[in-house]
């Protein structure tokens, strides 16, 4: 199947873009975390309570990991609804615009959290992305039910 084939739903592009962005954040997380661990000469303890040792890292280092974790949470709903819309033949038009809006806002959310972590701005961007996801969900519900 190619992007030119009739089976290709345009909404697949933002799905793949968000997966790719998640991998960028994964790389950024380790590109900052590993040097910080080495600078601090941390001795990683597998019996330490989950996350306890990482909490000793500088906040700006932890923010990247926090964002990567956030990209493993709500976006899973985006993937499900976007793929459902693709299968339903509804992966274009307004749904495509909403999907790209969601992805763009999640990327912006990543930059806000990873660089400055200004919580009020981060919450605003998260809320806007959630509204885009809600609209996608309502559109899918309307088609299915």
Topology record:
Layout (H helix, E strand, L loop, with lengths): L11 H29 L18 H12 L4 H13 L5 H24 L2 H26 L1
Protein name: MAPEG family protein
Organism: Amnimonas aquatica
Pfam families: MAPEG
Task: Write a brief caption for the model.
Helix content is 72%, strand content 0%.
The count of helical stretches stands at 5
Poorly predicted parts: none
What's the average pLDDT?
94
State the CATH class. Mainly Alpha
Q: N-to-C SSE series?
A: HHHHH
The span between the termini is 29 Å
* Main sheet overview: none
Total E-strand runs: 0
Helix content: over 70%
> How many domains comprise the coordinates?
1
What fraction of residues sit in β-strands? Answer: under 5%
CATH fold description: Four Helix Bundle (Hemerythrin (Met), subunit A)
Annotated CATH architecture: Up-down Bundle
CATH homologous superfamily assignment: Membrane associated eicosanoid/glutathione metabolism-like domain
Structural class: mainly alpha
Give Rg in angstroms: 18 Å
What does this structure look like?
The chain is an all-alpha fold and 145 residues long. It has one domain: Four Helix Bundle (Hemerythrin (Met), subunit A) (Up-down Bundle), CATH 1.20.120. Helices cover 72% and strands 0% of the residues. It has helices spanning 12-40, 59-70, 75-87, 93-116, 119-144. Helix 1 runs parallel beside helix 4, helix 2 (59-70) packs antiparallel against helix 4 (93-116) and helix 3 packs parallel to helix 5 (119-144). The radius of gyration is 18 Å and the shape is elongated.
């Amino acid at each position: 199947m190619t992007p030119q084939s009739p089976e290709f739903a345009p909404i697949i592009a933002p799905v793949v873009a968000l997966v790719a962005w998640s991998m960028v954040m994964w790389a950024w997380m380790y590109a900052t975390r590993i040097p910080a661990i080495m600078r601090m000469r941390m001795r990683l303890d597998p019996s330490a309570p989950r996350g306890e040792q990482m909490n000793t890292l500088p906040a700006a280092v932890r923010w990247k990991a926090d964002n990567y974790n956030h990209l493993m949470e709500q976006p899973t709903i985006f993937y499900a609804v976007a793929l459902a819309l693709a299968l339903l033949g509804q992966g274009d038009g307004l749904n495509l615009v909403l999907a790209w809006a969601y992805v763009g806002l999640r990327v912006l959310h990543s930059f806000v959290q990873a660089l400055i972590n200004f919580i009020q701005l981060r919450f605003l961007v998260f809320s806007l992305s959630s509204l885009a996801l809600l609209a996608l969900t309502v559109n899918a519900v309307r088609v299915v039910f």
